[in-house]
Amino acid sequence: MSELAAFLQWNTPNLLAEEVREASCHWLLLNALGLETGPSKPSADLQSLVLPIGDWQLSISTGGFYSAVDQDTPNSVQFRIPRGEAKTLLFALLGERAAAPAHPLDPQQWLFWLVPMAKLHPERQSIGLNPLIRAFGEGVSFGELLQRLKPQRTVFRIVLDDQDATAKSKDPIAGQDFESYDAAYDVLERYYADLCCSDERSYYRIVEQSA
Fold it and tell me: 126 and 176 share a domain?
């Protein structure tokens, strides 16, 4: 164990404490989305922060069944509802009722709910786990959350015309993706120039897709 790891274990032995849980959730999300974490944790209340993630403007509220590894019985989970500029709340639940999680930086230990602020009562200050599930479902995994939050990238794909698609499914050009229409067009232009008027050439089109 490194000196730094030993110090962190000595200084912060309870990784399930509320403050560590909230910081862990923010750290996981920002790193997974490739966003800037900053040189240190913000001094402001993390639940009051609004994160601009693509088209999302969201705040994160975390909850957990356990606030210490040696805890005998699970807590009753309550999520705070912060009020501010966020348009969406991300409710994040750490662990399961049956046992305390190993550590909060394991993304498999989390469940998430993305809830528009407009769907929450304006005077409500908190929501329990069961009402959250009844209103918004069983929650999604970390991987599913990332799929929803990541801005989709537009690509331009070369595909065979319908008349050739079945017969030439392994065509070397079809299926290639490009960042711009012009880049895809340049490939086709070179292809047609090389074959000129040959009867052996295939016919393609360029389609715009989300990746």
Answer: no
76-91 b/e with 16+ CB inside 10 Å = b?
ebebbbbeeebebbbb
d(CA 113, CA 105): 18
- pLDDT, position 199: 57
74 and 164 housed in the same domain: no
Give 210 or 185, the one with higher predicted confidence: 185
Domain identity same for 26 and 129: yes
Read off the pLDDT band of 195 (50, 70, 90).
low
Q: Token pair of 75, please?
A: 């807590």
What is the Cα–Cα distance from 68 to 210, expressed in whole angstroms?
43
H/E stretch holding 114 reads strand 110-116
In the prediction, which pLDDT does 5 show?
Answer: 82
* Sequence-ordered list of residues with C-beta below 8 angstroms from that of 204, at least 6 positions apart, any chain: 158, 159, 160, 161, 173, 174, 188, 191
Query: Do residues 28 and 142 lie in contact, with contact meaning Cβ atoms separated by under 8 Å?
Result: yes
Q: Are 100 and 75 in contact (CB under 8 A)?
A: no
Residue finishing a domain among 101, 119, 149: 149
Crossing angle of the two packed helices 142-149 and 18-32, in degrees rounded to 10:
50
pLDDT per position as a tens digit, 98-121? 999 888 999 999 999 999 999 999
Q: How many domains does the chain have?
A: 2
pLDDT in tens, 154-192: 788 888 876 444 444 567 788 888 888 888 888 888 877
